[in-house]
Amino acid sequence: MDFFLKVIFFTVMLLIHYALSSQKKVYLGAVIPVIFVATMAWRYLTVDTVSVKAQLLVMGIGLFCLMAEWMEGREMFKRNQEKELERLRIEDFK
Hints:
The protein has 3 helices and no strands. It has helices at about 1-20, 30-45, 50-94. Helix 2 runs antiparallel to helix 3. The longest helix has about 40 residues, at about 50-94.
């Protein structure tokens, strides 16, 4: 049951991150990666007893995934903005 709850939690966090990344304000998408790095640093300093290499690897992979998702959200925002601009141009010609 614990694994299932973790999967649901991370899925919800990724959905929230994607939603924040596709907003007009660019820096909203940076909220989740900052929280991720702070949490991983806190876990390394207080909870986990893993090696530095393992911790950096997990942080690197996590940040890579979050940044890839952030870039996809920004692309979606730009596509939606271009669609809206095209719709307005078409309305101007009518």
